[in-house]
């Protein structure tokens, strides 16, 4: 399924592979099950509800309420907000009530240990029963990897005998707990056996469970293997069901993928394609920190490339169709998933995993849906690192293609193996074609840069197909040595096409627990262009040594060959403190492509309440339009680089009227001249609701603000502090070098700020904060803690806000919170205290819940609209 290409000189180039999307072969309703997460939610707000809903998270596996396995992620704490965000099921890992892995259940004998656990299971079920209708979203998981834990051969097992060789105790315990749970909650759903692979012995488990009427309601196991094993083992399990006369039962592979895969769109699409093809649910594995959707969410409200991949996957609708890959079911090759929505008259293909050239072929394109010409939109979802935020997918091509004997061929070049790609087909015919959202761009790997001075280290190789436990890295290697006391300089030779302003992004890392990083936090380095125009950059922190984020700036370059140098010393600006590694730099020309307003097509939006896509309105400036009846909705997920004002224009055709809602707040009717709105940094949910008989919606345009929303900044040190709360100069990266710490351990230790509003209404309160709290962990998960603040406005009952880790108390992030302020003077009071357990009487004994608010640097107040 490939063909040879010749370059302009006639030489034979590399094979061009073919990925075929057969729109004539239906493979079932779109399921969307790959977007599950293990320990991906810390609590309401971490990650934000926008991030959770926009990623279309279907299932969450998480710890027992008040469990001590990890900080946060308590099942009943996350349950209400997760369901509000459209989540389906919370898989309650009942074993994670204990510390350690293997689980450290108390008792001198197996019988004593099981008795203790049985009592804890009963308590958990009784807690779930207090949640009312929400309890229908709970799935109980009585055992996790029993072969390596409670019924294995280790010190913390029942009797050091593996259930593989003697399953009597495990089977008896399963039967007992199954009866206990169902006796307390007859409508309960129970999942198992939750083994680390689909062992052959699972057949014996199913035979026993069938014979004793204790079959699981959902069958679970883990696939820390390959996407190919997903397809193979799901088929193997279905064969077991048929042979045993049970099911078919729902399946959840509630741990999948490795460090090397997670965060990388081109890797994860290969898992997604296998999971979607198998029509099962699956939860990404938890290797690192909880509350970031398994390396999808950045800070509280931002997404990286993986987030946008799952967002794009979750927007698929209709029926899946057959995808014929050039190397079927072979990892690290071109794979994909595709759908056909006959009502929308759209086909979507999501693919990736291989670099270079490829032909994307749509076969059996139905003429009654698309006609003789199709409109094709190509997006790229690039890798931006584990903790590196990403803008919306890049618009690479917009074109019209003929349908030739039922086929549409889209030739692709310069594919990046770490990126995923989306193509959307819709009916063509003289559509207005949008330019690319980005023009000239290049990446330069640090391993190819010229290094001078002392301390240079070429580190790696990092993650690879043969070493999936390590993290993904561009080009496999990276450069270290920019550290305290070093004089290292890393020089990149770049060739740029024209004079102009360029966006520069440095993909880098400083491990937050490294000895040299502990003192200052973010590592500072120095940038020069051809030896001039010095800038100081602060490089991002990460939770482990090879975890990539990015620091962004702009540089003025003249056409030709230029040298960009990152140094540990600068004669004008000073010296580096800390320790940093560099993976690569990215350059993007800031031309008309980049500076134009971002476009969000109505035809691609999420539609509800009778809204439908139409291709009959000639005034549409995109691939189609949306007809909104009264109450019909179109929802857009909009990226903002930072908290602040944006000018949002809702383009619509004709005289229709509608209402705009931003992040759950109604901001008024539509204005063809644009509406100044406060957008939170990261992911924003904008919904247009029809209020007239017909509203024909074309697209959304989001551009820079015009200064109509006034922001007022209030330094924390100018507020009133009480009790042990105090102003300190210990945080050098705080604005002006001062911040307030010690807020917490009760309402007596508080910060109060007096702020002013020009009029009564909803405002954004943006808190600049730091949080470096990180208690000792029991194993490979770093386990940082989210601090919280109880914010009271004008003395009203306080609202609790979660603040994710910033990895160091000298590393400051922004978190925007919507509040209602009165015209004139208002008071904002920040307090905190440790939250008790579910019963209200006990507290966590392992420093897993903080009694303190974060360090607060400043608060900015902006009207929402």
From TrEMBL:
* Alphabetized CDD domains for the sequence: CBM35_galactosidase-like (cd04081)
PROSITE patterns reported for this sequence: CBM6
Domain CBM6, residue spans = 442-588, 712-862
Q: Tell me where on the tree of life, at the top rank, the source sits.
A: Bacteria
Protein name, per record:
Cellulosome protein
Q: Which organism is it from?
A: Streptomyces mirabilis
């Amino acid at each position: 399924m490939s063909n040879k290409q010749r370059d302009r000189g006639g030489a034979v180039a590399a094979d061009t592979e073919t990925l075929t999307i057969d729109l004539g072969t239906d493979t079932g309703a779109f399921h969307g099950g790959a977007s599950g997460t293990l320990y991906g939610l810390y609590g309401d707000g971490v990650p934000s509800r926008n991030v959770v809903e926009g990623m279309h998270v279907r299932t969450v596996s998480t710890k027992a309420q008040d469990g001590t396995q990890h900080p946060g992620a308590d099942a009943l704490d996350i349950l209400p907000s997760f369901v509000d965000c459209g989540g389906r099921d919370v898989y309650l890992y009942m074993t994670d009530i204990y510390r350690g892995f293997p689980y450290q259940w108390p008792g001198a004998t197996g019988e004593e240990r099981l008795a203790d656990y049985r009592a804890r299971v009963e308590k958990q079920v009784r807690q779930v029963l207090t949640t009312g209708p929400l309890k229908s979203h709970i799935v109980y998981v009585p055992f996790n990897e029993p072969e390596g834990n409670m019924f294995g051969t280790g010190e913390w097992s029942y009797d050091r005998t593996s259930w593989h060789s003697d399953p009597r105790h495990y089977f008896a315990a399963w039967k007992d707990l199954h009866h206990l749970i169902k006796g307390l909650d007859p409508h309960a759903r129970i999942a198992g056996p939750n083994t680390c692979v689909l062992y052959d012995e699972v057949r014996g488990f199913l035979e026993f469970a069938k014979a004793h009427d204790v079959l699981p309601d959902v069958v679970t196991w883990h696939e820390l293997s390959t996407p190919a094993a997903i397809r193979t083992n799901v088929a193997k399990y279905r064969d077991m069901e048929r042979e045993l006369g049970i099911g078919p039962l729902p399946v959840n592979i509630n741990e999948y993928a490795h460090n090397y895969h997670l965060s990388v769109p081109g890797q994860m699409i290969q898992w997604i394609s296998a999971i979607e093809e198998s029509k099962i649910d699956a939860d990404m594995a938890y290797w690192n920190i909880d509350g970031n959707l398994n390396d999808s969410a950045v800070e509280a409200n931002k997404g990286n490339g993986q987030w946008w991949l799952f967002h794009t996957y979750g927007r698929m609708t209709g029926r899946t169709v057959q995808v014929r890959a050039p190397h079927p079911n072979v990892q690290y090759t071109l794979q994909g998933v595709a759908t056909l929505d006959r009502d929308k008259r759209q086909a979507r293909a999501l693919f990736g995993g291989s670099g270079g050239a490829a032909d994307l072929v749509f076969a059996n394109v139905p003429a009654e849906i698309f006609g003789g010409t199709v409109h094709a939109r190509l997006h790229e979802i690039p890798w931006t690192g584990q903790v590196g935020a990403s803008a919306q997918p890049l618009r690479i091509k917009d074109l019209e293609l003929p349908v030739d004997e039922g086929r549409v061929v889209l030739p692709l070049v310069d594919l990046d193996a770490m990126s995923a790609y989306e193509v959307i087909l819709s009916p063509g015919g003289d559509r207005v074609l949008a330019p690319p959202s980005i023009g000239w761009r290049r990446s330069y790997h640090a391993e190819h840069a010229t290094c001078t001075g002392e301390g240079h280290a070429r580190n790696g190789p990092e993650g690879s197909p043969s070493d999936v436990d390590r993290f993904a890295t561009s080009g496999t290697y990276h450069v270290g040595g920019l550290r305290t006391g070093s004089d290292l300089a890393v020089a990149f030779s770049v060739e740029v096409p024209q004079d102009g302003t360029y966006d520069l992004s440095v993909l880098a890392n400083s491990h937050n627990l490294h000895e040299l990083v502990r003192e200052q936090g973010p590592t500072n380095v120095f940038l020069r262009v051809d030896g001039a125009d010095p800038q100081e950059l602060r490089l991002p922190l990460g939770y482990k040594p090879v975890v990539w984020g990015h620091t962004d700036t702009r540089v003025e370059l003249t056409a030709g060959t230029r040298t960009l140098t990152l140094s540990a010393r600068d004669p004008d600006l000073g010296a580096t403190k800390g320790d940093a590694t560099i993976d690569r730099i990215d350059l993007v020309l800031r031309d008309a492509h980049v500076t134009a307003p971002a476009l969000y097509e109505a035809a691609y939006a999420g539609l509800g309440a009778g809204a439908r896509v139409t291709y009959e309105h000639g005034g549409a400036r995109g691939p189609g339009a949306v007809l909104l009846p009264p109450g019909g909705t179109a929802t857009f997920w909009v990226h903002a680089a930072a908290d602040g004002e944006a000018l949002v224009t809702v383009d619509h055709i004709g005289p229709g009227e509608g209402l705009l809602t931003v992040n759950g707040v109604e901001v008024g009717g539509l204005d063809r001249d644009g509406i100044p709105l406060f957008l939170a940094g990261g992911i924003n949910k904008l919904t247009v609701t029809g209020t007239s008989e017909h509203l024909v919606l074309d697209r959304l345009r989001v551009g820079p603000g015009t200064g109509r929303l006034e922001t007022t900044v209030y330094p924390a040190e100018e507020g009133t502090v009480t009790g042990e709360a105090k102003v300190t100069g210990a945080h050098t990266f705080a604005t002006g070098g001062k911040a307030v710490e010690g807020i917490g351990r009760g309402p007596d230790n508080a910060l109060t700020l007096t702020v002013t509003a020009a009029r009564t209404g909803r405002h954004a309160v943006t808190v600049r904060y730091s949080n470096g709290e990180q208690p000792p962990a029991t194993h490979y998960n770093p386990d940082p803690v989210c601090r919280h603040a109880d914010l009271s406005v004008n003395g009203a009952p306080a609202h609790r806000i979660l603040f994710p880790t910033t990895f160091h108390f000298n590393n400051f992030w922004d978190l925007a919170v919507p509040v209602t302020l009165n015209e004139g003077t208002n008071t904002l009071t920040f307090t905190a205290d440790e939250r008790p357990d579910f019963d209200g009487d006990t507290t966590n004994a392992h420093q897993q819940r903080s009694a303190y608010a974060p360090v607060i640097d400043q608060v900015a107040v902006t009207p929402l609209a």
